[in-house]
Amino acid sequence: MDTTSRERARERAAEYLLRRHRFRPAEALPWLIAIAVYFIFPDRMTFGSQVLIMVMFALSLDLILGYAGIVTLGHAAFFGIGAYTVGLAAARLHWNEPISGLFAAAIMAGLVGFITGWFLLRYRGLTLLMLTLATAIMLQETGNLRSDISGGYDGLPGLTFDPLLGKFDYDLYGHTYYLYVLAVLAVVFYFVRRIVYSPFGQALTGIRENVRRMHAIGSPVHRRLVTVYTIAAAIAGVAGALFTQTNAYVTLTVFDFDNSAKVMVMLILGGTGRLYGAFLGAVVYMVLEDYFSKLSPTFWQFGIGLMLVLAVLFARRGVLGLFESAGQYFSERKKS
Amino acid sequence: MPHFANIAVSILFDGLAYAMFLFITSVGLSVTMGLMGFVNLAHGAFAMAGGYIVVSLTRSLGIDFVPALAISSVTIGVASIPFERFLYRRLYRSTDLEQVLLTIGLAFMAIATATYFYGPIPKSVPLPEWLQGDVNLGFRYFPSYRAFLIVLGAALIAILWYAFERTNIGAKIRAAVDNRRMAESVGINVDLLFTLTFAVGSGLAALGGGLAIQLFGLSPSFAVIYLVLFLIVVAVGGLGSLKGTLLAALVLGVFDTGGKYLLADAGGFFIYAVTVAVLLIKPAGFYGRE
Which of A167, A323, B148, B266 is the most exposed place for a label (fewest CB within 10 A)? Predict the structure, then answer.
């Protein structure tokens, strides 16, 4: 009797995970929009690629912040490692093949993520915030120290990359780049989605919600956190590599605190722990920034600050959370 | 005097002056974080605002530097009270992340406002004659301004130490940092206490901001750039510990100055290396509770 009820519980859990994993029709929407943008705004493709790169960067942060609940102020460290892996390989080693460059960036950033994560993820709260922040700044200072290699704050300008797959060369308007970045994002997203809905992803959510209980049921908390930190670092590295490839230059500002803060703001605006929050947040942020910072950078900075304050006070689950609340409100009204 | 001793004295002197600036600006942050566990990333914005008030008072109204410092400090201290009452108070029980976001938002708004009124170019401040030039301490000449900073810092440390360790209100603050619920149970009004320390801390930050103008120049980005340093001092010293903040400010101030003297290229590397080393060994800082 006891064994059958346990089996039934196990089946129910498996069914729950499978149901969550199943593809919902609404999930096609962002991808259809991304493809439609390619045809509607052919002259804004360079900007479009930057938006997609930030989506990927925000997605990597969502893995650790939204799912595992690790608050970091130094996620730009991994973006920067990826960006400089590709940049240095092209400038110093004449390794200009783009796709293998992405793998190299993922491995380097993942490695740094693994090493720093192993040490840092034992800590929480302010200590962790300061340690992650210091990591990013130390990487930046190391780059500055060896400016003979890294180019210092002038960076590595005028990088060139081989045509994609040996065939598709880059055009002036960035059409090839846009599709390239979109394809890489699709692969990365599929991977992240699998992780999030796997038992491993469930364990991460458990750690976020109640770390003591996870310890109590024997979950290897530290190992899981280091694993997801490494994965997120590798993805951020890929985003950084794409940043260098699409811009054909890279400077040490990629390690800036601003970069870490910006990606966090995007994710928060979109909504954490919900995969598509990264999409919405990055798109909204980048489009608003593009429009308002041309109008007046000061005005934009004030606006982004105000948005953050309002988001914390009134919309703690981001724009997607607001939509959900609105949906719930209307469906409840229909019922009554 | 031999060359290396000369350099060592310079490093110690400048490091000490720098440490005093770090201590004055960070101590409020440390106590408020220790008391409420509130991650206040807008602390640098209060310091920046204090600096700009000093600029306006001295340049536009022709008030002397030292009274301007005092006026600015009191103004910011009072002005910070509504922020605490109406914004921060709502988030005491929230997560670190929400506190980080709210206060980063406030810092951004402050930076934008400062850029709007004062422009992005660094400002300087006219000093009275007795703070310019050098002062002779018998065996060597030292910059008067830094000497002033050290004397002022030492005086503030003495006052704060007395207030913290020897007065009734200081004892209440220490009790609340130690165990908030217990302090409330014995009838200490922790809310009021916190508003008070927050105002004093913000006022001190404003004082630090005013003092920093002569050292680094004042631009709107001050609010974020130096915030990192204040947070490091707090984290390394241990939350809510006066002693820890002082020790951290001294260690980081001297190390940073030394690093910049001896290895100019390495720039800010040392201060972060020291931070990481200390926090890896003592995660709660020098005098923090584990």
Answer: A167
CA distance A15 to A160: 49
In three-state secondary structure terms, A231 is: helix
Q: Which pair of tokens denotes residue B254?
A: 């001297």
Alpha-helical (H) ranges within chain B are 3-36, 43-59, 65-86, 96-118, 144-166, 168-178, 180-185, 190-216, 222-237, 242-262, 269-281
Residue A69 lies in a domain: yes
| Domain span including residue B43 | 15-220
Q: Structural domain tally of chain B? A: 1
Helix and strand counts by DSSP (H, E) for chain A: 15, 0
Q: Which domain holds residue A122?
A: 30-296
Amino acid at B177: V
Question: Which one of B102, B116, B231 has the shortest CB-CB distance to A309?
Answer: B102
Q: Closest chain A residue to B120 measured between Cα atoms? A: A298
Query: What is the tens place of the pLDDT at every residue in B154-197?
Result: 999 999 999 988 999 989 988 888 888 899 999 999 888 889 98
Question: How many contacts does A have with B, using Cβ atoms within 8 A?
Answer: 123
Q: In this predicted structure, what is the pLDDT of residue B11?
A: 86
A153-to-A146, B86, B224 alpha-carbon distances in Å? 11, 42, 19
pLDDT tens digits, one per residue of B224-252 = 888 888 988 988 888 888 889 999 999 99
Please give the tally of structural domains in chain A: 1
Nearest chain A Cα distance for residue B242, angstroms: 17
pLDDT (0 to 100) of residue A336:
57
Query: B27 lies in a domain?
Result: yes
Strand B134-136 vs strand B141-143: parallel, antiparallel, or unpaired? antiparallel
Label residue B72 left, alpha or beta by phi (over 0 means left) and psi (-120 to 50 means alpha): alpha
- The reply to whether B235 falls in a domain is no
Closest CA to B48 of B184, B229, B205: B205
DSSP assignment of A304-316: HHHHHHHHHHH-T
CB atoms within 10 A of CB A6: 10
Asked whether residue A164 is domain-assigned, the answer is yes
Domain-located, residue A198: yes
